[in-house]
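Predict the 3D structure for this chain.
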Amino acid sequence: MASSTAPEDDLDFHPRHTSILLGQDAAEAELRRAWDSGRMPHAWLLAGPRGIGKSTLAYRFARAVLASTNGGALFGGGGSAELPAEVAADHLVFRRVAGQAHSDLCTVETGVTDKGVAREQIVVGDARAAVTFFAHTSAEGGWRVAIIDAADELNEESANALLKVVEEPPEKGLVLLVAHRPAFVLPTIRSRCRILRMKPLGPGDVARVLSLQWPELAVDDVGALMAMAEGSPGRAIALAQADGVGFYRDLLDWLGALPKMDVPLMHKIADRLARRELGRGFRAVATLPEWGLIRAIRAGAGFHPDHEVVPGEVEVLSRLVGPGNLDHWVRVWEKVSLLLARGIALNLERKQLGLVVLSTLGRAARG
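Done. Predicted structure below.
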């Protein structure tokens, strides 16, 4: 069962369809050891930056648990010979999970509004679906698994609803909570979970994920996306979907003209954010002004990026922020970061949010 549905544009890249996990061998090994010990914690918090494979690991782990017939060792070795190192894409359990048709799996996600726009928070109705799910016995006589993606996107009401599940663990029940910002997870939930910290991937693994998921990407875009990904294949894929490279190129052109405000280009950039087809890529693109500002501040402090995203990037950023105005731009970054966080969380009108952020940068450049 599933309590929410992702926008259609994102389905091909959803972790429930992904059979390959790269760069997270240590995290997977820790789960395996816990299962093999026979003392499996009932709730896990998979913590780390967005897009590094936390959800992919959660689904991979869930499939293996659901494919188990006698509670043996999860990934082979010392337990059931029926449980392979991974559940193959042609396995019935894999197909049922991918089709959101496994009765012993509950997924809680942000879902979409009545207008088809991706929510930025998990609402209480979706969280209560997990409570109802665990209130019933297993439909297939084995383990029941709930995936919360992501726990830091629960609002106060939905977090309190989910607390009941982690406080009173059901027999043969497993809760896998994904957290991009674990500090934002309700402390009473976090304290009842085994925390599994996951790290960003190396460049080679990011490049491999990109080549597997998006083989038709242009070579120039691959290099730019690698620089923008910062170890997160999920971020790279989201930016590829949303033409993040083109957005960032326009943003640099606009920043390069400051303090003169290029109003038509400003509206063109903001219009990009209003495109419905951005899907889950909206967050990745919307935060590029903040991300670019961080790079500008680092460049102004003498820490130039190893790789330019697009030609001329370092020149633009260095001209915008220099050693003499670092404090000023750090305060601007704090303001922009807060504007974006609030605007995204409250699902504000997207073009208007873009115009507000760009206007803030324009005023900062003049002042």
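Residues 2-11, 70-84 have pLDDT under 50 and may be disordered.
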